[in-house]
Give the backbone structure.
Amino acid sequence: MTHNELVKHIDTRAIVWFRRDLRLDDNPAWEAAVTTHREIVPLFVLDSRLMAAAGVFRRRQILADLAALDARCRSIGGRLHLVEGDATTVVPAMAARLGATAVHVNLDVSPLARQRDRVVADRLAERDVRWDAHWGGLVHPPGAVRTAKGSLSQVFTPFWKTWRTVPHGLPHADPVPSQLAEVLDVGDCVALPAADAPPPFAGGEHGAHERLRAIDATVDDYPATRDLPAIDGTTQLSAALRFGTLSPRRVISVLGTHTQGREAVARQLAWRDWYAHITWQHPTIASNALRPQYDAIAWNQDDAGFDAWCQGRTGFPIVDAGMRQLAHTGWMHNRVRMIAASFLVKDLLIDWRRGERWFRTLLVDGEVSQNAGNWQWVAGTGPDAAPYFRIFNPTSQGKKFDPDGAYITRWVPELAHIDTRFVHEPWLAGSLFGAADYPAPIVDHAAARARCLDAYSIVRDIAR
Ligand SMILES: Cc1cc2nc3c(=O)[nH]c(=O)nc-3n(C[C@H](O)[C@H](O)[C@H](O)COP(=O)(O)OP(=O)(O)OC[C@H]3O[C@@H](n4cnc5c(N)ncnc54)[C@H](O)[C@@H]3O)c2cc1C
């Protein structure tokens, strides 16, 4: 008996339930299903509550990614079955109706996904359907990178040092399912809703792989350009990783780690793994400070300040440029995310959770683990976070990372004609600036810094 004949005897029909792994390449759930089952039903559950919560940019991105995945499934004889509803009901019902013996998934660290998966797995078990869970969205799954004592390092550098030494295996190419299993079209599904506008990034695995190939030519400049928001100097792969149109193992296998630039990208993927592992350990990461004493900070309930920040009208050009880039494109450069987030938390003394929610609504790559992990880093409330006394000065950050104001003027047109000497401090331009409709700074940075240090120092020593 050939290998293929053998595997077709192993099991019968399986569902591959796609969630944040919208690809066939290096997809462990897909590979396991097609190599152990005779018939495969690809499924995605469109939950209207989740789609509404996804925000405009992620909605556009996921619709494009789903269309691309459907096209791939059709090219091998099946289709992506889109079913509307709550996954805890839809998945067990589909499994029962189709007589599936297993449901294959790649796991997700988000607390809501874990809760949902527990319910689905229990309901499947009641029907004798196997829940076959894999990890496909991280280089290393939670638990794979440990300290000598066997725990998760709460400091990034030791995590990174171990992370680099743990073998992760090579990514697996799509195992040509038509030779192994039949990909079915069992009908009975809804049409993909139309998107109101194109996605922020080219959809599907093809788009992500094109981007990866393009990056291969420029990645060696990454250490020099990654902090300059005016330049397209980062990979812009975060949305592809967020929706899983690209596997992080594939990124490492294509780029390698043999130059400083390539190693630097791998290090960022280690940060991504680290925040995912921290979230697995602390599912309340978006609601509780991981250093709990900082939950006692007397945050400022400054709604006018919060609105000005959201709209990009704080009067601090680099902050406003970032917030407008976010609102217009669903993406913001990492350096500017740090500056804008620091401004909200430290200059306005507004609770980091409000900013985290705003970012998560708008970011095309927004997800709990990465967003809350980074917000807690900026706020100084998480593990290995920026120390509370490190308070970015938005003006000097702007001068350092956008020296000629090219990024600022792209997003803040009111400053397009200001003398470059004043682009970071338009309030100094006086009459030279004229009547341009750009706000005066909403805080005095030096006074705000002192207020922040006071608020943090009051709670810093509680329960240390
Ligand atoms: C306040 C704040 C909120 C953030 N929210 C998110 C979020 O919701 N989702 C998200 O994916 N990233 C988030 N980040 C991290 C980072 O800003 C983005 O991953 C990065 O800007 C994406 O652009 P890129 O793909 O060009 O990154 P590159 O610099 O090219 O990095 C390559 C990949 O490494 C990962 N990475 C890079 N920086 C980080 C980081 N600081 N933490 C974790 N992973 C990283 C990303 O997956 C990224 O695609 C946030 C950062 C801050 C400061």
Observations:
- The chain has three domains: 3-136, 137-170+205-281, 292-460.
